[in-house]
Amino acid sequence: MSASDGPGAPAEAARPADPPLDPRGVRFAAAVTTVVLALVLVSGSGWLVAAQALVFALASFAGMRFALYGVLYRLAIAPRLGPPAEREDAAPVRFSQTVGFVFAAVGAVGYLSGLTVLGIVATAFALAAAFLNAAFGFCLGCEMYGLLARARTARA
After folding, report:
1. Greater pLDDT, 143 or 12
2. Nearest to residue 98, comparing CAs of 38, 58, 134, 39?
3. CA-to-CA distance for 45 and 23, rounded, in angstroms?
4. Do 80 and 73 contact (CB within 8 A), yes or no?
5. What span, in angstroms and rounded, lies between the C-alpha atoms of 139 and 145?
6. Could you give the percent of the chain with pLDDT greater than 90?
7. Could you tell me which residue, 88 or 3, shows the higher pLDDT?
8. How many CB atoms lie within 10 A of CB 113?
9. Which position has the higher pLDDT, 12 or 127?
10. Where are the domains of the chain?
11. How far is CA 95 from CA 12, 15, 38, 84, 120, in A?
12. Roughly what angle, to the nearest 10 degrees, separates helices 46-57 and 90-113?
C-alpha cells in the first residue's frame, strides 16, 4: 500500500489522477530545478524564481503530465533510454511540486518586493529540496506526503 492509498492520504479528490512516473524523469526535473534555483541565488532574479513557481504550479494544479521539465524529459531524453525498471506513484511527487510552488512563490514575492532576505531563504530551501532529489533521489516533499498520510490514518 503506497502513501497515497486509503483514507489517510492527503486530499487529492478534486485533482485528476496522474499515471505512475518514471523516477528518472523526476530526478531530471529536480536537476533542472536545482540549476534554475542556483541561478536565482546567484543573480537575485525575482522574475526567474517567479518563472520556476509557474513551472511548479503547472505540475501541481494541472497534473504531472503537464509538468514542463517532465514533458522535456519524455520528449527529448526518455526515447533514448530503455523503459524504466520501476515506476513511482505520482501523488507524492505532485504534492512535492505544491510545496515547491509555495517556496518559490514566497521567494518571488520576497525578491520582487524588496524583501531580499525572504527571497534568498525561501529559494535556498527550495534549492536544498531539489538538490536532495537530483543528487540522491531523496524527495523531501514525498517524505512529507507519507508522514501526513500516516498521521491522518493514525487519527482516523
Report:
1. 143
2. 58
3. 30
4. no
5. 10
6. 86
7. 88
8. 11
9. 127
10. 23-155
11. 9, 11, 22, 22, 23
12. 160
Residue type for 138, please? Answer: F
Mean of pLDDT over the chain: 91
**Assigned C-alpha cell, 52:** 520556476
CA distance 16 to 98: 15
What does the pLDDT read at residue 15? 59
Q: In the predicted model, what is the mean pLDDT of residues 24-45?
A: 98
In three state form, how does the secondary structure of the chain look?
Answer: CCCCCCCCCCCCCCCCCCCCECHHHHHHHHHHHHHHHHHHHHHCCHHHHHHHHHHHHHHHHHCHHHCHHHHHHHHHHHHHCCCCCCCECHHHHHHHHHHHHHHHHHHHHHHHHCCHHHHHHHHHHHHHHHHHHHHHCCCHHHHHHHHHHHHHHHHC
